[in-house]
Amino acid sequence: ECVDTFSGDVLAERLLDVGMMLFKQEKYDECLSVTERALSFASNENIALLTSIHSNLASLYNKTSEYEKAENHYRERISLVEKDGDANYHYLAIAYDDLGAFLHQLNKNDEAANNLEHALSMVEADENEAQLIAQIHQHLSQVYSAVGASEKANLHNSKYMELMKLLDDNCDTDIKPIEK
What we know:
8 helices, about 0% strand, disordered C terminus
């Protein structure tokens, strides 16, 4: 049984790779078929693989305007990361941010704000998460702007801009050209 599970996961990983190549080629129907097939081969024990597959399926269904299916896969991804005993708040925050951004796209702004605020609460105290925190602030700014909460929108936009400047200032600008 262990060999079968391993073989299934290896096949699922290869199918996921093929699906990503098809996505880059904008062959979305073929990509969906291959990625759904990957899901059927993945073992329930391989949370990381299942999470990747659901993430890709969510993006694919969003791309093909099958929003209900996309939302289901975004939520399944969150469920899997939460179930994982070794759940990493970083990946969970990304999953909530992705769901929030998706819900905003559908004008489900109250639910989007809740998911984004939840994502932010997971990472806002971690200075190593500045890029993710900036992204979440940007999404929150967009959501609050859409519902007319301009004070909140401006606050999150200011935090986004501040973090982006900080990230830009922290880049190594002393790169010297390679001498010939």
